[in-house]
């Protein structure tokens, strides 16, 4: 007799899930699609040499946070063959300046360096409740000012970038503006509430405040492998792409966690090569390294003593109610947040596009998406305008359907009662970049996305 550890069982479950979906996509009707992953060659040279650039206006809207505009620029091959330099400046409810240089060759085209830097003068992030049944109203919105972030990554690639190993490091030094943040409690309405409502409002306030009030530094380390057995790295139309990524998040004032992401994407071109069906399977699992709860304590006697010594001049709330609310907030924080981890969330620009960024999160997440891409006006036409230079290849119309779920455990609940999105997208395909505009609808409304690169 031998025993299988919990970690081994976890890997077995993931392998089974991937096997089922892989069998599904490989059994799609062969008379409709041409699929040959074994005798597959790249359609073109993967590292271009021609200088290209695109400068464009940016208009953004973040539900519940605000909107604004700005400008962006993308320069191809300026820092070496295959490199990309991105520049972004936005103003409005968000004020961010960012620069990112990716794919810069070091000594050899096989070894690449990527660097990024961002300065956020003003902005906010909305945080939703944990689990699949959380409210569509954010629990709280955290605002920041004068925050900085930077990152670096090294990658090693072989066989025309069909095999790639990479390791990266990113850090952020956030400055949280608690006075301007909305911590999700009706603190302003305390005088008109009953004692039980006051207690609940204070509990919500303290639970959300404890998440990030002492956040001083955030560090993310990631390593991964990409097996890209497709006919093109930028715009694949045939083949398979498998990616595994391991990343850990540590810092001061935050729960330290580890996340493992698995992604499998299959591309099925039509017989005429004028369209492609894309299927993506994604699974993410997480675990806690060091819970934040060990540093959070509550002393009821000290709470009451502190209130009695304070200069409290109102009589519409009792000391017991305040301390009861604080105690409940600490307990709720330790129960639902401090000792729990978050896998890669669903919602935003890639997975479940009808939902806002970070809409669904828990210890595990699962996603499956289908997208039909139709090409028209295909060509290889160089252009050189005043602020645009590159090689136009095609316009693309896409229709997609997505489903996903989150769960505290990697069990049957992760694979039922799925959230879903469906939508349509218009893309402009250039030789070195894809510009994407999507609109998706779901049970909670619709979202618009303007982004660089495919959703999956």
Report Rg.
24 Å
Oligomer state equals single chain
Order of helices and strands: HEEEEEEEHEEEEHHEEEEEE
Number of strands: 17
Features:
single chain, 456 residues, Porin, 13-stranded antiparallel β-barrel, 4 helices, 48% strand
Report on the structure:
It is a single chain. The protein has a single domain (6-178, 213-291, 339-452), classed as Porin. Helices cover 15% and strands 48% of the residues. It has four helices and 17 strands. It has helices spanning 6-26, 195-212, 300-309, 319-338; strands at residues 52-62, 66-76, 84-92, 95-106, 108-127, 140-158, 163-173, 217-230, 239-252, 256-269, 275-290, 364-376, 381-384, 388-407, 419-430, 434-442, 445-452. It has a 13-stranded antiparallel β-barrel with strand order 1-2-3-4-5-6-7-8-9-10-11-12-14. A hairpin with a 3-residue loop joins strand 9 (239-252) and strand 10 (256-269). The longest helix has 21 residues, at 6-26. The model has no long low-confidence stretch (mean pLDDT 85).
Quick summary:
This protein has 456 residues and is of the alpha+beta class. It has four helices and 17 strands.
Topology:
Layout lengths: L5 H21 L25 E11 L3 E11 L7 E9 L2 E12 L1 E20 L12 E19 L4 E11 L21 H18 L4 E14 L8 E14 L3 E14 L5 E16 L9 H10 L9 H20 L25 E13 L4 E4 L3 E20 L11 E12 L3 E9 L2 E8 L4
Helix pairs in contact: 2-4, 3-4
């Amino acid at each position: 007799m031998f025993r299988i550890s919990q970690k081994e069982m976890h890997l077995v479950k993931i392998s089974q899930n991937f096997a089922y979906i892989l069998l599904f996509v490989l059994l799609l009707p062969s008379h409709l699609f041409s699929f040959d992953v074994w005798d597959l060659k790249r359609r073109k040279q993967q590292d271009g040499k021609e200088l290209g650039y695109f400068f464009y206006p940016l208009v953004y809207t973040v539900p519940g946070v605000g909107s604004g505009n700005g400008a962006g620029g993308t320069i191809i091959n300026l820092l070496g063959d295959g490199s990309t330099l991105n520049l972004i400046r936005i103003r409005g409810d968000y004020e961010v300046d960012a620069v990112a240089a990716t794919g810069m060759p070091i000594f050899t085209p096989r070894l690449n360096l990527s660097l990024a830097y961002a300065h956020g003068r003003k902005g906010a992030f909305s945080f939703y409740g944990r689990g699949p049944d959380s409210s569509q109203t954010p629990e709280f919105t955290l605002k920041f000012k004068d925050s900085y972030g930077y990152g670096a990554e090294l990658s090693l690639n072989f066989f025309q970038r069909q095999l790639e190993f990479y390791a990266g490091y990113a850090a952020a030094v956030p400055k949280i503006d608690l006075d301007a943040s909305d911590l999700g409690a009706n603190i302003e309405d305390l005088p008109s509430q009953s004692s039980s409502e006051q207690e609940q409002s204070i509990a919500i306030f303290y639970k959300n405040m404890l998440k990030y009030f002492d956040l001083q530094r955030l560090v993310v380390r990631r390593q991964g492998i990409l097996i890209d057995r497709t006919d093109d790295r930028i715009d694949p139309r045939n083949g398979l792409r498998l990616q595994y990524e391991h990343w850990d998040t540590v810092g001061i004032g935050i729960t330290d966690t580890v996340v493992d992401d698995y992604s499998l994407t299959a591309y099925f071109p039509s017989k005429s090569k004028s369209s492609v069906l894309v299927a993506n399977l994604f699974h993410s699992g997480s675990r806690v390294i060091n819970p934040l709860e060990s540093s959070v304590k509550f002393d009821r006697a000290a709470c009451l003593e502190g209130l009695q010594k304070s200069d409290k001049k109102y009589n519409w709330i009792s000391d017991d109610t305040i301390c009861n609310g604080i105690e409940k907030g600490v307990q709720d924080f330790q129960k639902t947040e401090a000792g729990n981890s978050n896998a890669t969330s669903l919602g935003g620009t890639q997975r479940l596009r009808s939902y806002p960024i970070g809409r669904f999160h828990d210890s595990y997440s699962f996603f499956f998406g289908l997208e039909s891409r139709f090409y028209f006006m295909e060509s290889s036409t160089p252009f050189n305008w005043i602020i645009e230079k590159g090689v136009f290849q095609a316009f693309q119309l896409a229709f997609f359907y997505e489903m996903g779920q989150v769960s505290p455990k990697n069990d049957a609940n992760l694979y039922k009662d799925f959230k879903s999105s469906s939508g349509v997208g218009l893309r402009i395909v250039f030789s070195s970049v894809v510009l994407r505009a999507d609109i998706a609808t779901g049970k909670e409304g619709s979202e618009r996305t303007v982004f660089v690169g495919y959703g999956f």
